[in-house]
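Hi R.,

Here's the chain you asked about this morning:
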Amino acid sequence: MLKGTAASPGYAIGKALVLRNEAIKIEKETVANVEEEKERFSSALKKSKEEIIKIREKALVNLGESKAAIFDAHLMILEDPELIKTIHQKIENNYNATFALKETADEFIAIFEGMDNEYMKERAADIRDVTDRILRNLTGQKATDLSLLDEEVIIVAHDLTPSETATMDKDKILGFITNIGGRTSHTAIMARTLEIPAVVGLNNATSVINDGDFIILDGETGKIDINPSQDQIEEYKRLKDAYEKERKDLEAMRGKASITKDGRQVELGGNIGTPEDINGLLRNDAEGVGLFRTEFLYMNRNTMPTEEEQFSAYKKVLEAMNPKPVVIRTLDIGGDKNLPYLKIDEEMNPFLGYRAIRLCLKENKIFKDQLRAMLRASIYGNLKIMFPMISNLKELLEAKKVLQEVMEELNQEGIRFSDDIEVGIMIEVPSAAIISDMLAKHVDFFSIGTNDLIQYTCAVDRMNEKIHDLYQPFHPAVLRLIQMVIENGHKEGIWVGMCGESAGDQRLIPIFLGMGLDEFSMSPISILPARKLISSLSYEEWKKHAENMLSLSTSEEIIEYVDRLKLNA
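And the predicted structure, written out as tokens:
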């Protein structure tokens, strides 16, 4: 039995698929039979083409034409006569096929990366992807393709990138288990969005669990049982059935207002990463989109999304939710989210570096293209625009100035957009929380991003397992900053929401309710349980409890206070 962090609720029972994508070792060898080696290369080429065609078909169905188009470029590389000719020449010089391919690929990649043209530079990443696939087919050392799964499995990995989760066959994946990460890691957030049970932060899962092991994943407690007894399996089947029944019982909350016993109404929205995630929000009766993480439109591809591609994605979400509000966050790249085609220098502290609004204000065209797409889509629904990682007033005013410029450009071009768009900011940097009284004068709303606010306030890397106990959502400093932001927002007559993972935490929701939070945005799976909880609470009572908790000294005291109230309820 292993124990990790319960990151996404539910239970999974099934076979493990362990991802161990090791680097391919290639050595130069002399071959005697040139024609046989050429045939070996041709077979690997053919097999790679068949795989890419299958992936393209799946991407078209699951992710749309824009993401499927990536694989058209990959097919073109496979058929490139210059590439194939160069490899054949090397084999004719008695090189083995793997060495001939690797050396040729490196030469082509170096040429493309050295070009001044940005589009041509981007082709280097495509060549790397395609040749890596051919190499694996040549050597038999295959990487697991999560878009081409034949059976239902529980994924076991060191970690899962946003790109991997974007292309995986979600119908075949029962659960996630990872060595690293916490409740706010991207794997955990994605698992909750997809409503897939997950346990993270196990440290050694990939070395202890073997491919094909039958395992039980407990997303409620963080336990993993490897090759359990039949009695354990039957017990967890009962727990799984009970969990699914509880989820069905929550259907009674659909269509109801999110309102307390004494009449205070709040809004429960959902966080999404792609237009496809809207289905989860509609299924869970969200009252809006509290956070559209637009960076996922930029990931898992080798070129920047065009204005038209973005417009299409935003329009789809706005139309699906209309007239409910949709808060779209401008590009939040950097930290642990990087783009292969956008070269950002390596940084000592990427979470404190060139990212989010800082990057957008420098990369003016990227920022303007995104704002143009948002504004054009605004006539199809209730759009609200949000700037991330604002740390001072100057950044906010500069961002609003760029938005105004884009509006003027669209007016000059005769392109329509809504004249009723609220503009807000994420409060995720302590400096922004402290000057929130000043910032509130220049925006229509705040949305508190607790994932980063906790990380920056507690000075703790939320991905570092060794100090994960220091990442404390109940830390008195964090709660005091949140209270300050809500009060300062209300003084200026603006609404205050929260889009960090804490917004869906059953122990924290009553505290934020008592502080006067207006809107909670969370993973879709958390919405109906949150509504049920809020309907059982008294706002006036929790207002007093929140005041009492702000006078406590430690996270432990606050947690004990909350648990005691729940016990006596």
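The radius of gyration is 25 Å.

Let me know if you need anything else.
M.
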